[in-house]
Amino acid sequence: RSEINPYSKHLKVLDLRLSDAGIYTCEYGSHTVSISLHVFKLTISLDGYFLPNEVPELTLMQNSPHPLPDLDITLFNSNNNIVRPTLLQDKTHQKYILKLKQLEATDSGTWMCHVHSDSPLINQNISFDVKVLGFQSPDLERKYATVDSTVILSWHLNFQKIKWKEGFTGQLNWKQQDSATAHELLDFNVTSRGEWHETKKSSRFRFEIPKSKPESTIEVKLPKVHFNHSGQYQCQLAYNKRYVQSKIELVVMKVSANPVGPLPRGAEMTLICQVSSPLPSNAHLLWERVNGTLMDIKKSKQDETKVEVTVSAAGLWNCHLIEDNDRKISLNYPVEEASVWIRYVVIGASIGGSVLLFGLACMCIISGISWQRRRQRAKRMARARQYLLENKTCQCQQ
């Protein structure tokens, strides 16, 4: 594992090991030069391939022909920020174990371990790679949409920047709020060379896989959102029998009125604004009338999934979903007043119905009287016939 340059007399040791530490002496005639070789070995758990929230462990070992110094170790992450791990070491100063905190996908990259000692003087930088396969988005993201709108749900991965020694697989599932049944929408796999394959699994759930999308992205498109499309959309990655997932909770909002239709003069109508699942504590629903006053505002209470407002006049009303004083989505509902001719039609229909009922009642009364008279006449004729039969006499000639 060693070779000597015949011109420079340099000694090259290949595949350096801890056991190679020692004193190397070069003799040339009456001249003797000795060099002490101090060897460090840095290893990382799981060969440096991690999923988010996993905790790496670094092991730094040293060997020297002299007494081993007590080392000062400083870690720098891929963003060149200092990381303060939990440090464990044995009494001989031969082995140092550094336990890091939970990783995030943004931690991927080249890290630096700086080793320092005053006696002997050591200032050594040891670089190592940390590869974290995961999502650039949060573990749980909330997205708002209105009924009949178009929604695109995206999960951005970071695998393109990393050379993976193995491929990984994944799938996208959806389940409705408070439902234990998950429906698989699509699955995918990525080879170690970065080749991407997707397969659509559900034919009943209406969604599309966009043809053009950002690189390293899982994306589905809901062209026309229904109220029951709400729920959790979960994207899961599997690498070397370990899993990581990221969820998007889709909250859908709709507005309606009771009763439906134009508002007659003097009548009232209830406007209903509703969301598909409970809102977080920093969000609420708000009805407001366009160009209205403070009296024309109705706000939902905490943990309410709908808010109602009673209106008695025509106008345009807007329902807003507000989170941290930021309007996320809005829907409007125009309240129209019933036209004059519609009121006349209603009044005419009412009068016509009353007249028709009165006419039917009169016909029933007249028919009843006529039937009663015929019945009485028939009874009188029957009594007359009976009387004639009882008083009939027969005369004979003598």
TrEMBL record:
**Record's Pfam families?**
CD4-extracel, Tcell_CD4_C
Query: Transmembrane ranges?
Result: 341-371
- What range(s) does the Ig-like domain occupy? 266-330
Keywords from the UniProt entry = Membrane, Transmembrane, Transmembrane helix
Q: Transmembrane: is it a keyword of this entry?
A: yes
Alphabetical list of InterPro entries matching this protein:
CD4-extracel, Ig-like_dom, Ig-like_dom_sf, Ig-like_fold, Tcell_CD4_Cterm
Q: List the PANTHER family hit by this protein, alphabetically.
A: T-CELL SURFACE GLYCOPROTEIN CD4 (PTHR11422:SF0)
Q: What is the protein name stated in its UniProt record? A: CD4 protein
Native source organism of the sequence: Nyctibius grandis
